[in-house]
């Protein structure tokens, strides 16, 4: 790697992944042009396209590429074409696998309401005003990784097993990060669990209480996951940092997409103790609109802002990207998912062009 060059692994993936990733890459190219940074963008395969071309959703070459990079930009994986295949050939297995392979354990999902989009949500504007939430999701444990798992035929039909498994170490490190993030924000941490039913959640709650002793300035609130789901739409302003296990975080952050008006607005950052971070929109591959140039690229572009901030040490550039997105939305520009009845909608590429024009002004 040349001195001063930041290597970024780009994994476009499936469905709308290549379209939205293309717009995010163009944002990086503009930042390099205006600010004199040097980005080495190296492409790899993951998900369904990797199954088709390499016979596996996560080729060894992709793992090597990611491990040797400063950051990873990922589009989306999956689609009905691969839904009926064996587990080891499912595109989602590639996504789970790359998180494990590069040691990512914490997924940050900021939920921010842009004032100009406050009417795009189905929730009332007075409920949404001022909402600024950070959902912190554990990535390496829980039902998605527990063993044993599988299905077998019994006399009464098919029997299935999924195991929810967590270690004390996994729980403690995500909770500690949650307290650190809350301390840097508004000093309120809501820990979400299902401690009235699950033994894993009871351990989670015990460890949360232990870790809280090291953060006397941060308020710790325990909340059962079903109540948290209700509270997110009833009174989202009560949340600052919300920390939870893998599956609960997956579901709650998708629910929170309705707060922002569209799942196409939500970026994410997956981080580990060392090595590259992985940045991706939280939405899926949307195969029903793939290739139509109508997908919203803003979540992917905002994921680039997170990359600039957390992996590349470019805070000023990160804020410029966020300001550019805000300016474009304030100017009334919308993709199809955000446009109201009768409102014109930009294509994916047109929205990317608008953001880059605004970004050039923000960087000048």
UniProtKB/TrEMBL annotation:
Cofactor binding, note field: Binds 1 Mg(2+) or Mn(2+) ion per subunit.
InterPro entries named among the record's database cross-references: IsoCit/isopropylmalate_DH_CS, IsoPropMal-DH-like_dom, Isopropylmalate_DH
Residue sites binding Mg(2+) per the record: 226, 250, 254
Sites marked Important for catalysis: 144, 194
UniProt-annotated binding residues for substrate: 99, 109, 137, 226
Pfam families: Iso_dh (PF00180)
The Isopropylmalate dehydrogenase-like domain, residue ranges: 7-355
Gene3D superfamilies in UniProt: Isopropylmalate Dehydrogenase (3.40.718.10)
Assigned EC number: 1.1.1.85
Binding site for NAD(+): 79-92, 284-296
Keywords of the record: Amino-acid biosynthesis, Branched-chain amino acid biosynthesis, Cytoplasm, Leucine biosynthesis, Magnesium, Manganese, Metal-binding, NAD, Oxidoreductase
GO BP of this protein: L-leucine biosynthetic process
Keyword Manganese: yes
Compartments, as annotated in UniProt: Cytoplasm
Protein's UniProt keywords contain tRNA-binding: no
Enzyme class at the top of the EC tree: oxidoreductase
GO molecular function, one term: 3-isopropylmalate dehydrogenase activity
One cellular component (GO) term of this entry: cytosol
Requisite cofactors: Mg(2+); Mn(2+)
Record pathway: Amino-acid biosynthesis; L-leucine biosynthesis; L-leucine from 3-methyl-2-oxobutanoate: step 3/4
Chemical reaction(s) catalysed: (2R,3S)-3-isopropylmalate + NAD(+) = 4-methyl-2-oxopentanoate + CO2 + NADH
Subunit structure: Homodimer.
Family as reported in the entry's similarity comment: Belongs to the isocitrate and isopropylmalate dehydrogenases family. LeuB type 1 subfamily.
Identification of the protein by name: 3-isopropylmalate dehydrogenase
Lineage: Bacteria, Bacillati, Bacillota, Bacilli, Bacillales
């Amino acid at each position: 790697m040349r001195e001063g060059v930041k290597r970024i692994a780009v994994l476009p993936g499936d469905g709308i992944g290549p379209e939205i990733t293309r717009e995010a890459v163009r944002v990086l190219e503009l930042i390099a042009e205006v600010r004199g940074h040097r980005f080495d963008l190296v492409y790899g395969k993951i998900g369904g396209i990797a199954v088709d071309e390499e016979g596996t959703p996560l080729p060894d070459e992709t793992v090597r590429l990611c491990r040797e990079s400063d950051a990873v930009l990922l589009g989306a994986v999956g689609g009905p074409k691969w839904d009926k295949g064996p587990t080891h050939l499912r595109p989602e297995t590639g996504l789970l696998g790359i998180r494990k392979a590069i040691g990512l354990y914490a997924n940050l999902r900021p939920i921010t309401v842009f004032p100009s989009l406050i009417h795009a949500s189905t929730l009332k504007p007075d409920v949404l005003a001022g909402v600024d939430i950070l959902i912190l999701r554990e990535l390496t444990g829980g039902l998605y990784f527990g063993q044993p798992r599988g299905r077998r035929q019994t006399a009464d039909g098919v029997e299935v097993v999924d195991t929810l498994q967590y270690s004390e170490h996994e729980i403690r490190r995500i909770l500690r990060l949650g307290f650190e993030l809350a301390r840097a924000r508004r000093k309120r941490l809501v820990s979400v669990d299902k401690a009235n039913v699950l033994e894993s959640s009871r351990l989670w709650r015990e460890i949360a209480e232990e870790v809280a002793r090291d953060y006397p300035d941060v308020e710790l609130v325990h909340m059962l996951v079903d109540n948290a789901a209700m509270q997110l739409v009833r009174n989202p302003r009560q949340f600052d940092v919300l920390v939870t296990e893998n599956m609960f975080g997956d579901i709650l952050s998708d629910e929170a997409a309705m707060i922002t008006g569209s799942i196409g607005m939500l970026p994410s950052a997956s981080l580990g103790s060392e090595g590259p971070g992985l940045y991706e929109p939280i939405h899926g591959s949307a195969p029903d609109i793939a290739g139509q140039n109508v997908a919203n690229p803003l979540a992917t572009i905002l994921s680039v802002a997170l990359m600039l901030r957390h992996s590349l040490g470019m805070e000023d550039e990160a804020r410029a990207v966020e300001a550019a997105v805000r300016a474009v939305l304030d100017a009334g520009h919308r993709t199809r998912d955000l446009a109201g009845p009768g409102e014109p909608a930009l294509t994916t590429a047109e929205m990317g062009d608008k953001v880059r024009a605004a970004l050039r002004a923000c960087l000048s």
